[in-house]
């Protein structure tokens, strides 16, 4: 077949269990359900890093974190010109990116021939296309276009603009316009990247009332919920202002707002599919849908990402291209975001022999024997490392000097920590796989070899900011809005 157009629909912080057709009876996702019916769903897809920037670098370059050199947010990695988007451009594709990329620096191209930017925290309006559009539309008074952060971070909010000007709608608008204007000539590649359902959950009318909290189930909180926590969980709860008690009603409200964000994205997916159909390009466009990582959403009384539990590491992954991905198929072999780069290179013609992943269509067809994928956050004393198979998740938290394991086949919600005494062979196998993977990647801050065998490298315990009642809290504001937001006589001076 001719080389297809390629469309990546990408969200931020979306759990794998948030698609109606894949088993969630409460959420409404009719257009994602359509992609499930008409394409292949990869139900064991894991992020290579459960935090935004490193996950996106792994996706963009098709490499594990130790090869990109980025393992946590704020780490800047130079562009080596080998992103899959760059490869597609060299192969003759017209490449364009819309929305959140979370690159460092945020306004770089990173292989795209052109970009339309929308980032969570804009340095200044001149560097953010969406913010300029919002201000030009008469909403220059809006200082937090993506919702108020800091101690409001996980409080559901009503957006400060109508749906037609909302960040999610803007991504849909720009994607539809690109598709309408790209019907002839060279094949094209488009990323349409949504910030939602990343918090703050700031939804416009009427979407903020789509779900009632009383109709939704509680988070998954086992009786021994604290035993499931790592240091990363404790710190994250503190700086997201979620460690000062438990409110069951608020937990359900947060879930309702989170689901509303996903449904509003789903609405844009429907518009984009309609634009493809109207332009005659639907059947010759590879459509991929995924997310950078998940969201704990109250499970274990935790919020955020930066965790190796399934809620944070498993993400949705859907692929539709008639003749390549079977309609209505489900693949439960372990997959990863690093598999997207070799997939589009295989189908689009960009050379990809140095990539770490596997083409998804070959994985779904059973042409590869891979039965495990990996994930990493941080390095050294604060690192967490995961190996995930179809039935097991096993991870090491260096800060806690502790292994955690879950037998997903019998405990799909990961409510019971597996015991090595009951599963000695499985623990030995999973531990060995993970340690060998880290050793092969040269990560000697994670493992060391003693008498010909690998073992965990132990580090001095890092400081724990949660030991201080006032420590570890995060304050985030839009940098450009600092002067605009001052109220003489009321606003406190800040150093």
Please explain how this structure is put together.
- By secondary structure, this protein is an alpha/beta fold.
- The protein folds into two domains: 5-371 and 465-481, Alkaline Phosphatase, subunit A, CATH 3.40.720.10; 379-462, Arylsulfatase, C-terminal domain (2-Layer Sandwich), CATH 3.30.1120.
- It contains twelve helices and 18 strands.
- The protein has helices at residues 30-38, 52-61, 65-68, 84-90, 129-136, 167-180, 231-239, 248-278, 310-313, 340-348, 360-364, 424-440; strands at residues 5-11, 40-42, 45-46, 94-99, 114-117, 157-158, 188-193, 202-203, 285-291, 317-320, 329-331, 335-336, 373-377, 384-388, 392-397, 402-407, 447-450, 453-456.
- The strands form five sheets. An eight-stranded mixed beta sheet has the order 5-4-7-1-9-10-2-11, with helices on both faces. Strands 13-14-15-16 form a four-stranded antiparallel beta sheet, covered by helices on one side. It has a two-stranded parallel sheet with strand order 3-12.
- α4 runs parallel beside α10 and α6 runs parallel beside α8 (248-278).
- The radius of gyration is 22 Å and the shape is globular.
- The termini are far apart.
- The model has no long low-confidence stretch (mean pLDDT 95).
